[in-house]
Design a protein that fits this description.
Its EC number is 1.17.1.8. The chain is of the alpha/beta class. About 35% of the residues lie in helices and about 25% in strands. The chain folds into two domains: about 150 residues, 3-Layer(aba) Sandwich (Rossmann fold); about 110 residues, Dihydrodipicolinate Reductase, domain 2 (2-Layer Sandwich). Helix 1 packs across helix 8 and helix 4 runs parallel beside helix 5. The longest helix has 14 residues.
Length: about 270
């Protein structure tokens, strides 16, 4: 049996972190070796998460954890406020970041790409780890070649901090590669309530819904003469993201540089 890939999970106590820890434990190719949380230190992971995590304990010190565990991969599901510093620390120590937190700029991604290549390691930033969501984005980009009038409605739980979602932004970027920038709707339209037409990205409108009960959902709506086309993806629970997370932990060991988007590993 090949040597296991050693994985540290940052934000392990959170909803995505919990699912990630469980997925790593259940995959024979991966070894769960560390958990980082800003509020827990020295507490057994098994005690908090109710999972068979062996002797692994929570730590508040990311650098110390990465070093002591000799981690190969750091999976980050934290917040935009701390994620960037976590990526910097991981790359500096030669640990491959797999990041599901969103909110970074293209310039920051380019800088991390250069830093990863300098260290000879790979990294991945994925706005969405669900395979179905990646297919939704790919299908939407193809549809935009023929139906350029498009709007996006994305719906997430009410604890999500950024809007629009990283998935919506990635979808807009992919569509923009396939159609010319253009205005949509009546040129003299007026918002009676400011913002009711949503955000504007190269003429495409994006609308963000934040309500209890949702996990992660998006519909891309295309309009044409006498017809509409809706491409929709729904994550019913957070398990939907785990096949993509596990795949990323394995694939990130094989390349150099920071990849933006899980589709780059799939296609």
């Amino acid at each position: 049996m090949a040597e296991q890939i050693r994985v540290v999970v940052v934000g392990a106590k959170g909803r995505m972190g919990r699912e990630t820890v469980k997925a790593i434990i259940n995959d024979e190719a991966l070894a769960f070796v560390g958990a980082v949380d800003r509020t827990l230190d020295g507490v057994p992971v098994s005690q908090v998460l109710g999972l068979d995590a062996g002797e692994v304990q929570f730590s508040t010190d990311l650098e110390k954890t990465l070093l002591e565990t000799q981690a190969d991969v750091m999976v980050d599901f934290t917040t935009p406020a701390v994620m960037k510093g976590n990526i910097d620390k991981a790359i500096a120590l030669g640990v491959r970041p797999v990041v599901g937190t969103t909110g970074m700029t293209p310039e920051e991604i380019a800088a991390w790409d250069a830093a990863c290549k300098e260290r000879g390691i790979g990294g991945l930033i994925a706005p969405n780890f669900a395979i179905g969501a990646i297919l939704m984005m790919r299908f939407a980009a193809e549809a935009a070649k023929f139906l350029p009038h498009v709007e996006i409605i994305e719906m997430h739980h009410d604890q999500k901090l950024d809007a629009p979602s990283g998935t919506a932004i990635k979808t807009l970027e992919l569509i923009a590669q396939e159609r010319e920038k253009m205005g949509q709707g009546h040129p003299n339209e007026h918002e009676t309530i400011a913002g009711s037409r949503g955000g504007d990205y190269e003429g495409m409108r994006v609308h963000s819904v934040r309500l209890p009960g949702y996990v992660a959902h998006q519909q891309v709506i295309f309009g044409g003469l006498g017809q509409t086309l809706t491409i929709r993806h729904d994550s019913i629970n957070r398990e939907s993201f785990m096949p993509g997370v596990v795949l990323s932990c394995k694939e990130v060991m094989k390349y150099e540089g920071m990849v933006y988007g899980l589709e780059n590993l799939l296609f």
